[in-house]
Write a structure and sequence with these properties.
With about 170 residues, the chain is mainly α. It is about 55% helix and about 0% strand.
Length: about 170
């Protein structure tokens, strides 16, 4: 048993581990449980694929929290700013407007929208960098648009086909 962990802590960590639904809090709880069961910091860091510094900070946060706070709140990450969006609100409005029309109406030589064509249109209308296909997919999903590949519908040959083929 690692210093600072009691049998009650082990039970609490096991119970929280069964309720964890996200990968990162699960990983942190698992690491704390391994520590509470007596594994070394180095071994836990290797098993959790984290640095020893991370393991020490998770352990310190757990020890500071005491028994009053929920473990889930303790182990969740704080919000991060992250990378800026490729498709901002202005581009979203342009995208919505474009999707309400046919590409032919906007002077494109295509009967339907493709990701490449949408990216070209956004670059042309908004300037700047061409958005990636993944960014477009995320934006379309957020705007509640769904897409699927066109399917070709084969029809019955016309009644005059046999005569036409016979002439050639």
């Amino acid at each position: 048993m690692h210093a600072g962990f009691s049998s009650g802590d082990r039970q609490r960590l096991r119970k929280a581990l069964t309720r964890a639904r996200r990968a990162r809090p699960f990983r942190r709880l698992q690491a704390l449980l391994w520590l509470a069961e007596g594994r070394s910091i180095s071994e836990v860091a290797r098993l959790a694929r984290a640095s020893r510094v991370s393991i020490y900070s998770w352990c310190a946060a757990y020890q500071q929290a005491g028994r009053g706070r929920k473990l889930a709140a303790l182990l969740h990450e704080k919000p991060r700013s992250g990378r800026p969006r490729q498709i901002g609100p202005e581009a979203e409005a342009v995208l919505q407007s474009a999707l309400a029309q046919s590409p032919l109406e906007l002077q494109y030589q295509s009967p339907g929208w493709t990701l490449a064509l949408l990216a070209t249109h956004l670059q042309k209308c908004c300037g700047g960098e061409r958005p990636s296909r993944d960014a477009l997919r995320r934006c379309l999903h957020a705007l509640k648009w769904r897409w699927k590949r066109p399917r070709y519908a084969f029809r019955q040959p016309g009644p005059q086909r046999a005569k036409k083929n016979a002439r050639s």
